[in-house]
């Protein structure tokens, strides 16, 4: 794709340029430096903010930072308590991390599409894709991690034998074993794929529309990009929320013993 | 658009973030929330208790006040009764005293009348004697006519 971008000019070139990641390496061992850089920076931002709040946390009158952190904690905790009835030390922090990290990723979408690539090009960086959630690697990394957790907890709670039985004997009993297995495998693999593709699709499309708006004459741009940006505030929050809630639901399903 | 090693890098980052959140971020913040919730609940309970105690105290105070009012009105009643009694008593005493004084005065008057009568009788007797003496001259022997004189003087009284 990088070579195509060099060749193409005009509107197509502009779009492709914006959606081409800064990468090093060849084949599978390619690294998208921009995705890694921005997600690490945003993760750092998240950790730094909450660490600051956690260090100063008191049971007394909370400060502004603590209030905001507690608001998010309570929000996540309510979601977890609503759908997850087991007892786990991992799920709530996991959900918080997912929600905040994805939200910050998506938030990068609200920066004007040209400003960060422009700064990058001034510093000699040719390609810069600033929204990590428009990279399938980022969304799949998260959903596959969640998938591993689902498998891990399924085996931990139900035992290897119990999990195998669940995969093979439901919903149609032992006589339709292969069919059961196929159905269950599709069901399990659909989880990470749908999680990753939903987030990626929404943000990729959103970013594409921002880029298309940026191609229009300057006097039309605000009329379109302003409402789209406002709408996008809803979308980025909603996508982060959906990813979080589905993670909680999947993990609570993994905890349920039939 | 292709899946590549970035995926692994992202997964490692994600794992680290989750681990950090689980270890250093969630517990202190959540604990402080729980603690504050407990504190608030305790405070509310204490406030309710205090209010209840206040209601009780108010009720008690009302009772005490009522009792005191009753007592005071009783005392006032008694005092009034006593005062009217005293007034009656003193009226009675005064009447008795005045009666006594009147009686004493009457007795004194009577006595004085008697005295005046006595002295008048004496004087009249003397006068009569004198008159008789002057009329009769030395004819009459006082000693001889003693009984006549006293008879006359008795008739005068």
What attributes does this structure have?
heterodimer, A: 258 residues, mainly alpha, 9 helices, disordered N terminus, B: 157 residues
Which helices and strands appear, and what pairs or packs with what?
The complex is a heterodimer of chains A (258) and B (157).
Chain A: H1 2-7, H2 10-19, E1 23-24, E2 31-32, H3 33-55, H4 64-83, H5 91-107, H6 115-122, H7 136-169, H8 177-215, H9 221-255
Antiparallel strand pairs in A: 1-2
Helix pairs in contact in A: 2-8, 3-4, 3-5, 4-5, 5-9, 7-8, 7-9, 8-9
Chain B: H1 6-136, H2 146-156
Helix pairs in contact in B: 1-2
> Sheet bearing the most strands of chain A, described?
2 strands, antiparallel
Strand residues, percent of chain A: under 5%
What level of helicity do the residues of chain A show? over 70%
| Strand/helix succession of chain B | HH
Q: Based on helices, strands and strand pairing, what is the structural class of chain A? A: mainly alpha
Task: List low-pLDDT spans of chain B.
Answer: none
Calculate the terminal CA-CA distance of chain A, rounded to whole Å.
48 Å
The rounded Rg of chain A comes to 21 Å
Q: How would you sum up the major sheet of chain B?
A: none
What's the helix-strand series of chain A?
HHEEHHHHHHH
What is the number of helices of chain B? 2
Strand order of the largest sheet of chain A: 1-2
Rg of chain B, alpha carbons: 61 Å
Spans where pLDDT lies below 50 across 5 or more residues of chain A: 1-7
Looking at the structure, what is the overall shape of chain A? globular
Report mean pLDDT of chain A, rounded to a whole number.
86
In percent, how helical is the residue content of chain B? over 70%
Would you kindly provide a written description of the structure presented here, covering whatever features stand out?
The complex is a heterodimer of chains A (258) and B (157). The N terminus of chain A is likely disordered. Chain A is built from 9 helices and 2 strands, in the order ααββααααααα. Chain A is an all-alpha fold and 258 residues long. Chain A has a two-stranded antiparallel sheet. Chain B is mostly helical. In chain B, helix 1 runs antiparallel to helix 2. The model of chain B has no long low-confidence stretch (mean pLDDT 89). The interface between A and B is large, with 50 and 33 residues.
